[in-house]
Write a structure and sequence with these properties.
Elements lengths: L2 H35 L3 H38 L2 H37 L8 H11 L2 H17 L4 H25 L2 H24 L15 H18 L1 H10 L6 H37 L2 H38 L6 H14 L3 H16 L8 H20 L2 H25 L5 H30 L5 H25 L3 H13 L8
Protein backbone atom coordinates (compact mmCIF):
# COMPACT_ATOMS: atom_id res chain seq x y z
CA UNK A 1 0.00 0.00 0.00
CA UNK A 2 1.40 3.43 -0.96
CA UNK A 3 2.33 6.01 1.66
CA UNK A 4 -0.43 8.48 0.60
CA UNK A 5 -3.00 5.68 0.93
CA UNK A 6 -1.70 4.88 4.40
CA UNK A 7 -1.88 8.58 5.32
CA UNK A 8 -5.44 8.92 4.00
CA UNK A 9 -6.52 5.88 5.99
CA UNK A 10 -4.88 7.12 9.19
CA UNK A 11 -6.32 10.61 8.72
CA UNK A 12 -9.79 9.22 7.94
CA UNK A 13 -9.74 7.03 11.06
CA UNK A 14 -8.40 9.84 13.25
CA UNK A 15 -10.94 12.36 11.98
CA UNK A 16 -13.73 9.77 12.27
CA UNK A 17 -12.84 9.16 15.91
CA UNK A 18 -12.83 12.88 16.67
CA UNK A 19 -16.11 13.38 14.83
CA UNK A 20 -17.56 10.36 16.65
CA UNK A 21 -16.57 11.90 19.97
CA UNK A 22 -17.97 15.26 18.89
CA UNK A 23 -21.21 13.65 17.74
CA UNK A 24 -21.41 11.80 21.03
CA UNK A 25 -21.24 15.11 22.84
CA UNK A 26 -23.67 16.52 20.27
CA UNK A 27 -26.11 13.73 21.06
CA UNK A 28 -25.80 14.51 24.74
CA UNK A 29 -26.72 18.07 23.83
CA UNK A 30 -29.78 16.89 21.89
CA UNK A 31 -30.80 14.53 24.69
CA UNK A 32 -30.75 17.47 27.09
CA UNK A 33 -32.72 19.61 24.63
CA UNK A 34 -35.24 16.81 24.09
CA UNK A 35 -35.64 16.36 27.85
CA UNK A 36 -36.15 20.08 28.36
CA UNK A 37 -38.26 21.00 25.32
CA UNK A 38 -39.45 17.78 23.64
CA UNK A 39 -41.18 18.56 20.35
CA UNK A 40 -42.94 21.67 21.66
CA UNK A 41 -43.61 24.99 19.98
CA UNK A 42 -40.75 26.81 21.77
CA UNK A 43 -38.17 24.59 20.12
CA UNK A 44 -40.04 24.79 16.81
CA UNK A 45 -39.72 28.59 16.91
CA UNK A 46 -36.01 28.36 17.71
CA UNK A 47 -35.37 25.94 14.81
CA UNK A 48 -37.31 28.15 12.40
CA UNK A 49 -35.39 31.26 13.46
CA UNK A 50 -31.90 29.77 13.29
CA UNK A 51 -32.53 27.94 10.00
CA UNK A 52 -31.24 30.79 7.80
CA UNK A 53 -28.13 31.69 9.90
CA UNK A 54 -27.20 28.01 10.33
CA UNK A 55 -27.76 27.38 6.63
CA UNK A 56 -25.48 30.33 5.84
CA UNK A 57 -22.91 29.10 8.39
CA UNK A 58 -22.78 25.75 6.61
CA UNK A 59 -22.90 27.44 3.22
CA UNK A 60 -20.03 29.88 3.83
CA UNK A 61 -17.95 27.38 5.77
CA UNK A 62 -18.24 24.58 3.23
CA UNK A 63 -18.17 26.78 0.14
CA UNK A 64 -15.07 28.74 1.09
CA UNK A 65 -13.28 25.60 2.23
CA UNK A 66 -13.84 24.24 -1.27
CA UNK A 67 -12.29 27.42 -2.66
CA UNK A 68 -9.45 27.97 -0.19
CA UNK A 69 -7.93 24.47 -0.27
CA UNK A 70 -7.66 24.04 -4.08
CA UNK A 71 -6.51 27.66 -4.51
CA UNK A 72 -3.84 27.14 -1.86
CA UNK A 73 -2.77 23.84 -3.43
CA UNK A 74 -2.51 25.28 -6.94
CA UNK A 75 -0.72 28.40 -5.69
CA UNK A 76 1.85 26.41 -3.73
CA UNK A 77 2.46 24.05 -6.66
CA UNK A 78 3.22 26.99 -8.93
CA UNK A 79 5.11 29.38 -6.66
CA UNK A 80 6.48 29.78 -3.17
CA UNK A 81 4.34 29.43 -0.06
CA UNK A 82 4.67 33.12 0.85
CA UNK A 83 3.04 34.20 -2.42
CA UNK A 84 0.34 31.56 -2.03
CA UNK A 85 -0.54 32.79 1.44
CA UNK A 86 -0.62 36.42 0.38
CA UNK A 87 -3.03 35.50 -2.41
CA UNK A 88 -5.18 33.58 0.06
CA UNK A 89 -5.39 36.60 2.42
CA UNK A 90 -7.08 38.60 -0.34
CA UNK A 91 -9.60 35.81 -0.81
CA UNK A 92 -10.24 35.83 2.93
CA UNK A 93 -10.74 39.60 3.06
CA UNK A 94 -13.33 39.49 0.27
CA UNK A 95 -15.09 36.54 1.90
CA UNK A 96 -15.23 38.29 5.27
CA UNK A 97 -16.79 41.40 3.72
CA UNK A 98 -19.44 39.25 2.03
CA UNK A 99 -20.25 37.52 5.32
CA UNK A 100 -20.52 40.83 7.17
CA UNK A 101 -22.87 42.19 4.51
CA UNK A 102 -25.02 39.07 4.79
CA UNK A 103 -25.16 39.41 8.58
CA UNK A 104 -26.24 43.05 8.37
CA UNK A 105 -28.89 42.12 5.82
CA UNK A 106 -30.34 39.47 8.15
CA UNK A 107 -30.47 41.89 11.07
CA UNK A 108 -32.26 44.56 9.05
CA UNK A 109 -34.71 42.23 7.29
CA UNK A 110 -35.35 39.79 10.13
CA UNK A 111 -39.18 40.21 10.40
CA UNK A 112 -39.65 39.78 6.64
CA UNK A 113 -37.37 36.73 6.57
CA UNK A 114 -39.29 35.01 9.38
CA UNK A 115 -42.64 35.57 7.67
CA UNK A 116 -41.23 34.33 4.38
CA UNK A 117 -39.66 31.09 5.64
CA UNK A 118 -42.46 30.19 8.11
CA UNK A 119 -45.81 31.44 6.80
CA UNK A 120 -47.66 29.20 9.25
CA UNK A 121 -46.00 30.67 12.36
CA UNK A 122 -48.45 32.53 14.60
CA UNK A 123 -48.03 36.27 15.20
CA UNK A 124 -47.43 35.81 18.92
CA UNK A 125 -44.22 33.86 18.24
CA UNK A 126 -42.76 36.19 15.59
CA UNK A 127 -41.03 38.67 17.98
CA UNK A 128 -39.10 35.85 19.66
CA UNK A 129 -38.14 34.40 16.28
CA UNK A 130 -36.92 37.83 15.11
CA UNK A 131 -34.70 38.22 18.17
CA UNK A 132 -33.23 34.73 17.68
CA UNK A 133 -32.44 35.21 13.99
CA UNK A 134 -30.73 38.54 14.67
CA UNK A 135 -28.47 37.23 17.41
CA UNK A 136 -27.63 34.01 15.59
CA UNK A 137 -26.72 35.87 12.37
CA UNK A 138 -23.27 36.56 13.86
CA UNK A 139 -22.28 32.94 13.18
CA UNK A 140 -22.05 33.74 9.45
CA UNK A 141 -18.93 35.86 10.06
CA UNK A 142 -17.48 33.18 12.34
CA UNK A 143 -18.01 30.62 9.55
CA UNK A 144 -15.65 32.42 7.16
CA UNK A 145 -12.94 32.90 9.79
CA UNK A 146 -13.08 29.25 10.87
CA UNK A 147 -13.14 28.02 7.26
CA UNK A 148 -10.03 30.04 6.42
CA UNK A 149 -8.01 28.78 9.38
CA UNK A 150 -9.20 25.19 8.87
CA UNK A 151 -8.51 25.23 5.12
CA UNK A 152 -4.90 26.31 5.50
CA UNK A 153 -4.35 23.66 8.18
CA UNK A 154 -5.99 20.91 6.11
CA UNK A 155 -4.01 21.94 3.03
CA UNK A 156 -0.90 21.45 5.16
CA UNK A 157 -2.28 17.98 6.09
CA UNK A 158 -3.13 19.06 9.66
CA UNK A 159 -6.55 17.55 10.28
CA UNK A 160 -7.00 16.79 13.95
CA UNK A 161 -7.31 20.12 15.75
CA UNK A 162 -9.74 21.46 13.10
CA UNK A 163 -11.77 18.26 13.44
CA UNK A 164 -11.86 18.76 17.22
CA UNK A 165 -13.44 22.22 16.88
CA UNK A 166 -17.07 21.01 16.87
CA UNK A 167 -16.34 19.04 20.05
CA UNK A 168 -15.48 22.25 21.88
CA UNK A 169 -18.47 24.07 20.38
CA UNK A 170 -20.82 21.33 21.58
CA UNK A 171 -19.30 21.36 25.07
CA UNK A 172 -19.87 25.12 25.38
CA UNK A 173 -23.44 24.77 24.12
CA UNK A 174 -24.23 22.00 26.61
CA UNK A 175 -22.93 24.16 29.46
CA UNK A 176 -25.33 26.96 28.54
CA UNK A 177 -28.32 24.62 28.15
CA UNK A 178 -27.74 22.88 31.46
CA UNK A 179 -27.15 26.07 33.44
CA UNK A 180 -29.59 28.52 31.82
CA UNK A 181 -32.42 26.72 29.98
CA UNK A 182 -34.56 26.62 33.11
CA UNK A 183 -34.51 30.41 33.43
CA UNK A 184 -34.27 31.75 29.87
CA UNK A 185 -35.73 28.81 27.87
CA UNK A 186 -34.43 28.44 24.29
CA UNK A 187 -32.30 31.58 24.57
CA UNK A 188 -29.81 29.37 26.44
CA UNK A 189 -29.41 27.33 23.22
CA UNK A 190 -29.02 30.55 21.23
CA UNK A 191 -26.27 32.05 23.41
CA UNK A 192 -24.48 28.71 23.69
CA UNK A 193 -24.58 28.31 19.91
CA UNK A 194 -22.91 31.66 19.20
CA UNK A 195 -20.28 31.38 21.94
CA UNK A 196 -19.60 27.75 21.02
CA UNK A 197 -18.80 28.69 17.43
CA UNK A 198 -16.59 31.51 18.74
CA UNK A 199 -14.69 29.00 20.90
CA UNK A 200 -14.23 26.81 17.82
CA UNK A 201 -12.65 29.71 15.92
CA UNK A 202 -10.26 30.38 18.81
CA UNK A 203 -9.24 26.71 18.90
CA UNK A 204 -8.33 26.48 15.20
CA UNK A 205 -6.55 29.83 15.37
CA UNK A 206 -3.91 28.38 17.72
CA UNK A 207 -2.17 25.98 15.25
CA UNK A 208 -2.80 28.50 12.47
CA UNK A 209 -0.87 31.21 14.32
CA UNK A 210 1.90 28.72 15.12
CA UNK A 211 2.51 28.36 11.39
CA UNK A 212 3.91 31.94 11.57
CA UNK A 213 2.16 33.01 8.41
CA UNK A 214 0.43 36.06 9.86
CA UNK A 215 3.42 38.08 8.69
CA UNK A 216 2.09 37.60 5.18
CA UNK A 217 -1.21 39.21 6.18
CA UNK A 218 -2.34 42.25 4.23
CA UNK A 219 -5.56 44.20 3.90
CA UNK A 220 -5.46 44.40 0.13
CA UNK A 221 -8.78 43.35 -1.41
CA UNK A 222 -8.07 43.07 -5.10
CA UNK A 223 -5.28 41.12 -6.76
CA UNK A 224 -4.85 39.69 -10.25
CA UNK A 225 -6.77 36.54 -9.43
CA UNK A 226 -9.55 38.28 -7.47
CA UNK A 227 -11.97 38.47 -10.38
CA UNK A 228 -11.69 34.71 -10.87
CA UNK A 229 -12.08 34.12 -7.13
CA UNK A 230 -15.25 36.24 -6.97
CA UNK A 231 -16.81 34.53 -9.97
CA UNK A 232 -15.99 31.10 -8.55
CA UNK A 233 -17.26 32.14 -5.12
CA UNK A 234 -20.60 33.18 -6.63
CA UNK A 235 -20.84 29.87 -8.47
CA UNK A 236 -20.01 27.83 -5.37
CA UNK A 237 -22.34 29.84 -3.15
CA UNK A 238 -25.18 29.17 -5.58
CA UNK A 239 -24.30 25.47 -5.68
CA UNK A 240 -23.94 25.09 -1.93
CA UNK A 241 -26.92 27.37 -1.33
CA UNK A 242 -29.00 24.84 -3.22
CA UNK A 243 -27.96 22.20 -0.69
CA UNK A 244 -29.28 24.38 2.14
CA UNK A 245 -32.72 24.50 0.50
CA UNK A 246 -33.57 21.13 2.07
CA UNK A 247 -33.97 22.25 5.67
CA UNK A 248 -35.55 25.59 4.78
CA UNK A 249 -38.06 23.87 2.46
CA UNK A 250 -38.98 21.35 5.15
CA UNK A 251 -39.53 24.04 7.78
CA UNK A 252 -41.53 26.16 5.33
CA UNK A 253 -44.02 23.35 4.72
CA UNK A 254 -43.90 22.00 8.29
CA UNK A 255 -44.74 25.42 9.78
CA UNK A 256 -48.35 24.81 8.70
CA UNK A 257 -48.44 21.26 10.12
CA UNK A 258 -49.05 20.07 13.68
CA UNK A 259 -46.81 21.64 16.36
CA UNK A 260 -43.76 19.48 16.96
CA UNK A 261 -43.17 18.30 13.37
CA UNK A 262 -40.29 20.76 12.91
CA UNK A 263 -38.65 19.63 16.15
CA UNK A 264 -39.15 15.95 15.30
CA UNK A 265 -37.61 16.52 11.88
CA UNK A 266 -34.63 18.19 13.55
CA UNK A 267 -34.06 15.21 15.84
CA UNK A 268 -34.51 12.75 12.96
CA UNK A 269 -32.03 14.64 10.77
CA UNK A 270 -29.54 14.66 13.61
CA UNK A 271 -29.74 10.89 14.01
CA UNK A 272 -29.64 10.25 10.29
CA UNK A 273 -26.63 12.53 9.87
CA UNK A 274 -24.57 10.60 12.42
CA UNK A 275 -23.15 8.09 9.89
CA UNK A 276 -22.81 10.90 7.33
CA UNK A 277 -20.93 13.18 9.70
CA UNK A 278 -18.70 10.45 11.09
CA UNK A 279 -17.82 8.50 7.95
CA UNK A 280 -18.63 10.62 4.87
CA UNK A 281 -17.21 13.79 6.42
CA UNK A 282 -14.08 11.99 7.61
CA UNK A 283 -13.51 10.26 4.27
CA UNK A 284 -14.11 13.37 2.15
CA UNK A 285 -12.04 15.61 4.44
CA UNK A 286 -9.07 13.26 4.44
CA UNK A 287 -9.20 12.59 0.71
CA UNK A 288 -9.83 16.16 -0.47
CA UNK A 289 -6.20 17.43 -0.33
CA UNK A 290 -5.09 14.30 -2.20
CA UNK A 291 -7.73 14.91 -4.85
CA UNK A 292 -6.40 18.46 -5.17
CA UNK A 293 -2.78 17.31 -5.45
CA UNK A 294 -3.60 14.62 -8.03
CA UNK A 295 -5.64 16.94 -10.23
CA UNK A 296 -3.02 19.71 -9.96
CA UNK A 297 -0.35 17.26 -11.19
CA UNK A 298 -2.60 15.83 -13.90
CA UNK A 299 -2.16 12.33 -12.43
CA UNK A 300 -5.19 10.65 -14.04
CA UNK A 301 -4.34 7.20 -12.72
CA UNK A 302 -4.27 8.49 -9.16
CA UNK A 303 -7.49 10.44 -9.72
CA UNK A 304 -9.22 7.32 -11.01
CA UNK A 305 -8.05 5.29 -8.03
CA UNK A 306 -9.22 7.90 -5.51
CA UNK A 307 -12.61 8.27 -7.18
CA UNK A 308 -13.23 4.53 -7.34
CA UNK A 309 -12.22 3.98 -3.74
CA UNK A 310 -14.25 6.94 -2.56
CA UNK A 311 -17.39 5.60 -4.23
CA UNK A 312 -16.99 2.00 -3.09
CA UNK A 313 -16.13 2.86 0.52
CA UNK A 314 -19.11 5.23 0.62
CA UNK A 315 -21.45 2.44 -0.39
CA UNK A 316 -19.91 -0.01 2.06
CA UNK A 317 -20.56 2.43 4.91
CA UNK A 318 -23.94 3.76 3.79
CA UNK A 319 -25.98 0.68 2.87
CA UNK A 320 -25.54 -1.25 6.15
CA UNK A 321 -26.25 1.99 8.04
CA UNK A 322 -29.52 2.36 6.15
CA UNK A 323 -30.45 -1.21 7.04
CA UNK A 324 -29.80 -0.68 10.75
CA UNK A 325 -31.76 2.57 10.92
CA UNK A 326 -34.71 1.12 8.99
CA UNK A 327 -35.06 -1.87 11.32
CA UNK A 328 -34.32 -0.20 14.65
CA UNK A 329 -35.50 3.41 14.12
CA UNK A 330 -38.14 3.42 16.87
CA UNK A 331 -35.85 1.81 19.42
CA UNK A 332 -32.98 4.19 18.59
CA UNK A 333 -35.25 7.18 19.21
CA UNK A 334 -36.67 5.64 22.39
CA UNK A 335 -33.23 4.92 23.83
CA UNK A 336 -31.76 8.33 23.03
CA UNK A 337 -34.63 10.73 23.61
CA UNK A 338 -37.61 9.21 25.45
CA UNK A 339 -37.51 11.11 28.73
CA UNK A 340 -38.83 14.37 30.18
CA UNK A 341 -40.87 16.36 27.66
CA UNK A 342 -40.05 13.90 24.85
CA UNK A 343 -43.12 11.65 25.08
CA UNK A 344 -44.32 8.71 22.97
CA UNK A 345 -46.04 11.14 20.60
CA UNK A 346 -42.62 12.71 19.94
CA UNK A 347 -41.10 9.25 19.52
CA UNK A 348 -43.64 8.32 16.84
CA UNK A 349 -43.06 11.48 14.80
CA UNK A 350 -39.27 11.27 15.03
CA UNK A 351 -38.90 7.55 14.30
CA UNK A 352 -41.23 7.72 11.28
CA UNK A 353 -39.22 10.56 9.78
CA UNK A 354 -35.89 8.89 10.61
CA UNK A 355 -36.78 5.66 8.84
CA UNK A 356 -37.53 7.36 5.52
CA UNK A 357 -34.63 9.77 5.78
CA UNK A 358 -32.27 6.79 6.08
CA UNK A 359 -32.97 5.89 2.46
CA UNK A 360 -30.89 8.94 1.49
CA UNK A 361 -27.65 7.75 3.09
CA UNK A 362 -26.03 6.21 -0.01
CA UNK A 363 -26.88 9.30 -2.03
CA UNK A 364 -25.52 11.62 0.64
CA UNK A 365 -22.27 9.68 1.03
CA UNK A 366 -21.61 9.75 -2.71
CA UNK A 367 -22.59 13.43 -2.98
CA UNK A 368 -20.08 14.34 -0.26
CA UNK A 369 -17.20 12.46 -1.91
CA UNK A 370 -18.01 13.32 -5.53
CA UNK A 371 -18.60 16.99 -4.77
CA UNK A 372 -15.18 17.19 -3.14
CA UNK A 373 -13.64 15.58 -6.23
CA UNK A 374 -15.28 18.10 -8.58
CA UNK A 375 -14.19 20.96 -6.33
CA UNK A 376 -10.64 19.63 -6.22
CA UNK A 377 -10.58 19.48 -10.03
CA UNK A 378 -12.14 22.97 -10.11
CA UNK A 379 -14.98 21.68 -12.29
CA UNK A 380 -17.51 23.87 -10.59
CA UNK A 381 -20.20 24.29 -13.21
CA UNK A 382 -21.17 20.63 -13.22
CA UNK A 383 -22.11 21.04 -9.57
CA UNK A 384 -25.09 23.13 -10.66
CA UNK A 385 -26.66 19.68 -10.49
CA UNK A 386 -27.29 20.66 -6.85
CA UNK A 387 -29.49 23.52 -8.03
CA UNK A 388 -31.54 21.16 -10.19
CA UNK A 389 -31.88 18.77 -7.25
CA UNK A 390 -32.92 21.59 -4.90
CA UNK A 391 -35.70 22.55 -7.28
CA UNK A 392 -36.70 18.90 -7.42
CA UNK A 393 -36.76 18.83 -3.60
CA UNK A 394 -39.26 21.71 -3.45
CA UNK A 395 -41.52 20.13 -6.09
CA UNK A 396 -41.29 16.63 -4.61
CA UNK A 397 -42.04 17.94 -1.12
CA UNK A 398 -45.18 19.73 -2.29
CA UNK A 399 -46.36 16.51 -3.96
CA UNK A 400 -45.23 14.06 -1.27
CA UNK A 401 -46.88 15.80 1.70
CA UNK A 402 -50.21 15.75 -0.13
CA UNK A 403 -50.03 11.94 -0.17
CA UNK A 404 -47.95 11.05 2.90
CA UNK A 405 -48.44 14.06 5.20
CA UNK A 406 -45.32 14.78 7.32
CA UNK A 407 -43.59 11.58 6.11
CA UNK A 408 -43.47 13.25 2.70
CA UNK A 409 -40.82 15.64 4.04
CA UNK A 410 -38.43 12.70 4.51
CA UNK A 411 -39.40 10.88 1.32
CA UNK A 412 -38.77 13.93 -0.85
CA UNK A 413 -35.31 14.44 0.71
CA UNK A 414 -34.29 10.83 0.11
CA UNK A 415 -35.36 10.90 -3.53
CA UNK A 416 -33.61 14.24 -4.10
CA UNK A 417 -30.26 13.12 -2.64
CA UNK A 418 -30.37 9.92 -4.69
CA UNK A 419 -31.11 11.82 -7.91
CA UNK A 420 -28.21 14.18 -7.22
CA UNK A 421 -25.74 11.35 -6.60
CA UNK A 422 -26.72 9.52 -9.78
CA UNK A 423 -26.39 12.69 -11.85
CA UNK A 424 -22.88 13.42 -10.52
CA UNK A 425 -21.79 9.84 -11.09
CA UNK A 426 -23.05 9.91 -14.66
CA UNK A 427 -20.64 12.78 -15.52
CA UNK A 428 -17.58 11.40 -13.74
CA UNK A 429 -15.91 9.51 -16.57
CA UNK A 430 -16.20 12.38 -19.04
CA UNK A 431 -15.23 15.25 -16.75
CA UNK A 432 -12.95 13.96 -13.97
CA UNK A 433 -11.37 10.59 -14.70
CA UNK A 434 -12.52 7.20 -15.82
CA UNK A 435 -13.50 4.85 -13.04
CA UNK A 436 -13.87 1.10 -12.99
CA UNK A 437 -17.62 1.06 -13.70
CA UNK A 438 -17.80 -2.71 -13.93
CA UNK A 439 -15.89 -3.09 -10.67
CA UNK A 440 -18.14 -0.56 -8.93
CA UNK A 441 -21.32 -2.31 -10.13
CA UNK A 442 -19.99 -5.66 -8.91
CA UNK A 443 -19.09 -4.02 -5.61
CA UNK A 444 -22.62 -2.58 -5.31
CA UNK A 445 -24.15 -6.00 -5.87
CA UNK A 446 -21.94 -7.53 -3.19
CA UNK A 447 -22.65 -4.82 -0.62
CA UNK A 448 -26.39 -4.94 -1.35
CA UNK A 449 -26.37 -8.73 -0.98
CA UNK A 450 -24.54 -8.53 2.34
CA UNK A 451 -26.87 -5.77 3.56
CA UNK A 452 -29.95 -7.75 2.47
CA UNK A 453 -28.85 -10.77 4.49
CA UNK A 454 -28.11 -8.44 7.39
CA UNK A 455 -31.60 -6.96 7.06
CA UNK A 456 -33.26 -10.37 7.28
CA UNK A 457 -31.24 -11.27 10.36
CA UNK A 458 -31.78 -7.85 11.94
CA UNK A 459 -35.55 -8.06 11.39
CA UNK A 460 -35.68 -11.40 13.16
CA UNK A 461 -33.48 -10.19 15.99
CA UNK A 462 -35.76 -7.18 16.31
CA UNK A 463 -38.84 -9.39 16.69
CA UNK A 464 -37.21 -11.75 19.18
CA UNK A 465 -35.19 -9.43 21.42
CA UNK A 466 -35.91 -5.75 20.85
CA UNK A 467 -39.54 -5.05 19.83
CA UNK A 468 -41.96 -3.78 22.50
CA UNK A 469 -39.18 -2.89 24.92
CA UNK A 470 -39.89 0.68 25.99
CA UNK A 471 -37.75 1.05 29.11
CA UNK A 472 -34.35 2.72 28.96
CA UNK A 473 -32.48 -0.12 30.66
CA UNK A 474 -34.26 -2.79 28.63
CA UNK A 475 -33.21 -1.05 25.42
CA UNK A 476 -29.71 -0.34 26.71
CA UNK A 477 -29.23 -4.06 27.26
CA UNK A 478 -30.94 -5.34 24.09
CA UNK A 479 -30.40 -2.74 21.34
CA UNK A 480 -26.58 -2.38 21.09
CA UNK A 481 -25.98 -6.17 20.91
CA UNK A 482 -28.76 -6.46 18.31
CA UNK A 483 -27.15 -3.79 16.13
CA UNK A 484 -23.64 -5.23 16.56
CA UNK A 485 -24.82 -8.74 15.70
CA UNK A 486 -26.67 -7.48 12.62
CA UNK A 487 -23.57 -5.62 11.40
CA UNK A 488 -21.41 -8.65 12.14
CA UNK A 489 -23.61 -10.66 9.77
CA UNK A 490 -23.03 -8.02 7.07
CA UNK A 491 -19.26 -8.19 7.66
CA UNK A 492 -19.17 -12.00 7.52
CA UNK A 493 -21.29 -12.20 4.37
CA UNK A 494 -19.23 -9.40 2.80
CA UNK A 495 -16.05 -11.25 3.70
CA UNK A 496 -17.40 -14.35 1.99
CA UNK A 497 -18.29 -12.29 -1.09
CA UNK A 498 -14.70 -11.01 -1.23
CA UNK A 499 -15.40 -7.34 -0.48
CA UNK A 500 -11.86 -5.97 -0.37
CA UNK A 501 -12.13 -3.70 2.70
CA UNK A 502 -13.70 -6.48 4.74
CA UNK A 503 -11.07 -8.94 3.55
CA UNK A 504 -8.42 -6.54 4.90
CA UNK A 505 -9.93 -6.40 8.39
CA UNK A 506 -8.29 -9.54 9.85
CA UNK A 507 -4.86 -8.37 8.68
CA UNK A 508 -5.41 -4.89 10.10
CA UNK A 509 -6.55 -6.29 13.45
CA UNK A 510 -3.61 -8.71 13.47
CA UNK A 511 -1.09 -5.94 12.81
CA UNK A 512 -2.70 -3.60 15.35
CA UNK A 513 -2.46 -6.30 17.99
CA UNK A 514 1.33 -6.23 17.61
CA UNK A 515 1.57 -9.82 16.39
CA UNK A 516 2.41 -8.97 12.81
CA UNK A 517 5.67 -7.86 11.38
CA UNK A 518 4.26 -5.01 9.27
CA UNK A 519 4.27 -1.91 11.42
CA UNK A 520 3.50 0.61 8.64
Amino acid sequence: MSQPSQTIKRATIGIALLVLLSKGVGFLREVIIAYRFGTGIDYDVYLIAVSVPIALYSLFGYAFTNLFIPNYGYAVSGTDKKSALRALWSDFNLSLIAAAAMTIGIILMAPAIIRMIAPGLSEQHIPEAVMIIRVSSSVVILAVIEAFFRSVLNAEKQFFIPAAGPLLANAVLIGFIVSLSGSISTRAILYGLVLGYLAQVILVSIPFLRMKIVGFFHTRLIQKHSGRFISLAVIILIIEGASQVYSITDRYFASSMDPGIISALGYANLLMMLPVAIFAYALSTAIFPYFSDAFARGDKERCSYLLTRGITVSLLLALPSTMIIWVFSKEIVLLLFHRGAFDLHSVAYTSDLLRYLAISLAGQFILWVMSRAYYAAQKYRILFVHVVVAIAKVILTAIAISYFDYIGLAISSSFSYTIGALLLLSFTGRILARVDVRGILLYVIKVMAASAVGYLVASQIHVWFVADRLGFYELLISLPPAIILSLLVVVLVGYGLNISELRELPGLIYRRSGSGVDKN
